[in-house]
Amino acid sequence: MENKKSKNKVIITLLVIIVMLPVLFVILRKTHVILKIGDVYTWCFSTEFIVDEEDNINDDNISEIAYMHRLKHFTAMGTQITDFGFITDFPQLDSFSAVCNSKYPEIRAANIPSLKNSPAIDYVYVYVDVEDLDFIADLPELKDLTVVPRNTDINDISGLKNKTALKSLILGNVNCSDFSVLLDLPSLQCVVIEGTLLPDDIKNGLAENGVSIKNYAEDHVCMLQGSFTELFLPYDYQSPKSLSLTNTTIGYDITKSDEKYIMKDSGFLSDLDTVAELCIYVDSIEDVSGVCEMDSLQTFRVNKGSLLDEDKDMLNDKGVEVIEE
Question: Domains in the chain and their CATH numbers?
Answer without folding.
Answer: 220-325 (3.40.50)
